[in-house]
What we know:
Blueprint: E1 2-6, E2 11-24, E3 27-32, E4 38-42, E5 45-51, E6 65-68, E7 71-79, E8 82-87, E9 90-95
Parallel strand pairs: 1-9
Antiparallel strand pairs: 1-2, 2-3, 2-5, 4-8, 5-7, 6-7, 8-9
Amino acid sequence: MQVEIITPESKIFQGEAEAVQLPGLDGSFQVLANHAPIISALVEGEVKVNLTQDFIETDGVNDVVYADGSNKRLIRVKIKGGVMEMLNNKVIVLAE
C-alpha cells in the first residue's frame, strides 16, 4: 500500500508499506494492505511504518523519520497529533 505522511510544512515521507501502526484516540491501531476505508483522529505518539524495502535515510528528514535500529524496514515518525485516512490501498497521515 502507498503511505504519505504530511505536515503543514512539507511531505516528510512517501513510500510503499506492508503495515502502518498509528496512535489513535482510543489506543494504538494498525492497518494492513487492502484494509477497509477508515478515517481516524490521531494523538501524540509514533507512527510506525513496516516498509516493503529497506529505508534509505536522506538529509533533512533524519530528525523526523528514522529507521528502527538494525531493522531498516521499520521506520518511526513522531507526531503531536493529526488525522489519518485509508482509502483505495493508500494511507494519508496529516500530522502536526
